[in-house]
Amino acid sequence: MSKFDDMICGLQQDTEVPKDVWAKYTDALSKLPDKQEERRVSKSHWMKYAASAAAVVMVGSVVCYSNPALAAKIPFIGNIFKEVQKISTFSGEYDEKAKVLSSDDEGISDSIYTAEASGVTITASEVYCDGLSIFLTAEVDVEKGGLESSPGGLIYLDGSWKLAGDTEDRMLINNNLEGKAIDDHTFIGMLKLDLDETDLQGSTMELKLSMIGYDDVNELDVEDISASHKIQAEWDLSIPFTVDREAVRTIEIRKENKGYCLDKVFVSPYQVITYTDVPYVEQEITRDEYEKAMEEKTGGSGEDVGISYEEYVEQMGKTYAQCSTLIFNQDGVQLQPTEEIRGRSVNAVQDMEISKLYIYVFDDFDDWIEMSENGMDSDAAERAVIAEEVDVK
Questions:
Q1: Lowest CB count within 10 Å: 92, 110, 255, 347, which one?
Q2: How many domains does the chain have?
Q3: Cα–Cα distance between 241 and 64 in angstroms, integer?
Q4: Which pTM does this prediction carry?
Q5: Beta strands in the chain (DSSP E)
Q6: 210 pLDDT exceeds 90?
């Protein structure tokens, strides 16, 4: 049986669908040419076939919505990376490396990958870890709908997560699912969770979501940056993962100048992270200053914010010098910078081939902007505190 026949039989199984709908649907799809024949088919024929299929899909959409059993069989779960990996910020060929989360695995229950509350079902699909980030795909099904009116390809998330064995939860910092709406009730996307530097080989990530939100193009308010639609509940997922050590490299550099030190660079198929030691000035923070800051943060409620005086001093007791990093590949194409905190610069590879990196560290943000706009040939290159060429392969 062909893949086409498998798909049709799979969709029809246990589902009452009008015979005339199936006849038109299968006829339209079966006429679509194979990839091998693609160059021999004229554009007008393709448009004809596409138009026929589109008309049937409109009917099929109504059938799917009225028959959830049919909609559930459309194969997004296990294939979400293929759908969103080209449109995500950290784009790349994840589907070749990711693990599909399946209840077929020994000792695994469906319940750890799916959570439902308040009319929202979240189903984890695939996971990949490069050692410094977990990339997780998921499908979100919203009973009340409205997803097709949401611009930007984002669903907002609130919550926390931790690894198995951790005693404390971590706040969800990269708090959005980036992808696309499939229909008014279904969204698929990818979530990126950043790990601390460890020699982790694998673990289980426990994700606890407390809110999902999405915007409405008809209700945008420039004065209100919160989501137009918010649904608060509890969704708990447990995601086992292993670390892909074969596809990543950490390259020691240790180049110093003017108190800065470009220590090392981490390279994976999806991100490049540089680590620079940055000069800083220490400042004293008294316990009274700490307590005042906590009072302002909680509005005087006395709520425990989860950070001790010692931790606060460690975080806030140093004023760091400016540090802004740009990275280019061997062809002079700039990697996409996404964040930089205290010399840790995260850059999206976005499906580029990388055999060499050109790294520039600036202590003046204006120079960083100039080089970002004008590329490697910019005069700002000469004003970089550190400029280093790194062979990756």
A1: 110
A2: 3
A3: 33
A4: 0.75
A5: 99-100, 114-117, 120-129, 133-142, 154-163, 170-171, 176-183, 186-194, 202-214, 229-242, 249-257, 260-267, 271-277, 280-282, 318-320, 324-329, 336-341, 344-348, 356-362, 386-391
A6: yes
